[in-house]
Design a protein that fits this description.
- This protein has 2 domains: 164 residues, 3-Layer(aba) Sandwich (Rossmann fold), CATH 3.40.50.2000; 158 residues, Rossmann fold, CATH 3.40.50.2000.
- 37% of the residues lie in helices and 18% in strands.
- The strands form 2 sheets. A 7-stranded parallel sheet has the order 3-2-1-4-5-6-7. Strands 10-9-8-11-12 form a 5-stranded parallel sheet, with helices on both faces.
- Strand 11, helix 9 and strand 12 form a beta-alpha-beta unit.
- Helix 3 runs parallel beside helix 4 and helix 5 crosses helix 10.
- The N and C termini lie close together (11 Å).
Length: 343
Amino acid sequence: MKILILTQKVDYNDGVLGFFHNWLKKLAERFEYITVICLEKGDCDLPANVEVLSLGKESGNGRFTYMRLFYKYILQTKKNYDAVLVHMNPEYVVLGAWLWKLWGKKIALWYNHSYGDTKATAAINLAHKVFFTSPYAFATGFEKAQAMPVGIDTEQFNPQDIKSASSSFKILSIGRISPVKNVDTLIKAAHILEQDKFDFVVHIYGDAPSRDKMYFNTVKESASDLIKKGRVVFHKGIANIKTPGVYNQHDLFVNLTPSGSFDKTILESMSCKVPILICNKSLGNFLSNDFLFEENDTKDLVRKIKHLAGKDLQSQQDNFRKYVIEKHSLRALIEKFYQAFKK
């Protein structure tokens, strides 16, 4: 079976979207040929049966050129694919569905946002199938929707004994620095932990999109005294392939994204057997209250950090990895993709 995939970026060095490069490598093991059209192309190392065509954001192309190349590519490669998968960008479905349907190509959309505008609604209506992972996703309201594993490469994200010799309790945050990630709440919690003489260090990995630079600067300024004391350390975003080593150097992964999206970093940490503390309810009843705090409740976050720091969590950590392998592995996702397109 041959498929066309449309996505935002293909670059294994990207800190946010680098995971998709690995998805393509695994998909190539199951599908005969894959044509990829992406908005931006960076560093790639893909099998011979994967062709990547860029709309040219990396070259400074504008919207008119994007659209011209989009139609050029789907036309010139139409004999190279039997079906289409659009990853998170519903506008591609809106633009291409009339041609794909004319040619008899089946269309699937991966759409996991908790909100949906008229463009998303139109794309879902035009697609034959829509995939999602979060129970809070907008797509769940449609009959054609299908729940999917998140797609964590459990061979890449595995436990490693590389903890540092430092006795401080090491807390980790990974992801883009944006208001929706609520990094400011973690900084407020760090101030309280410092006042309470708790021995800790918070490592924050991530960059801010241009629209969120002001938020990032505000967060950094609020943490200035903690930065000077070595209690909070900001790091640039790193490639997804490098994050397993970072997870494994920490005692606790804190994610402050609210319910509504299913942040894959939560499952990456669990796959590495690193304890998590989240306010996201997407895991349903799997997590005990030990690993959940009330959204935007700084005091509850502090209480839970202290509580987890004093517990033996080995059995829960083993269950974390088992859960990811059974429910959300990349291999399970690839197989579900294959079976969905086969039907």
